[in-house]
Write a structure and sequence with these properties.
about 100 residues, alpha+beta, Alpha-Beta Plaits, four-stranded antiparallel β-sheet, about 35% strand, globular
Length: about 100
């Protein structure tokens, strides 16, 4: 399993717009081939900090996600909302075994 944790900090005034834009990306991403999870998490202590938990069956399917129209539209829409550049960290998902 190929997992990416994307750390995101949003400008406070853009939080609601960011959540809405990410909702659209989430809904389409969960329909992609190989997608196992696509979760948006929010830090309760810092409500402008988020994490995307993206799990795909393979690295190739995770890379294909970054070529989809909904991802490209999301990336363009939210780029100006970032307080700092987003940061993705890749992990090998071990459990559950798929």
């Amino acid at each position: 399993m190929h997992v990416t944790l994307v750390h995101i900090e949003v400008v406070t005034s853009d939080v609601d717009a960011f959540i809405q834009a990410t909702r659209d990306n989430h809904l389409n991403s969960t329909k992609e081939r190989g997608n196992l999870r696509f979760d948006l998490l929010r830090d309760p202590a810092h409500p402008n900090r988020f994490m995307l938990y993206e799990a795909y069956a393979s690295e190739a399917e995770a890379k294909a996600h970054k070529l989809t129209p909904h991802y490209l539209a999301w990336r363009e829409k939210v780029e100006k909302m970032m307080a700092v550049p987003r940061r993705g960290v890749v992990y090998d998902g071990l459990l559950p075994e798929r």
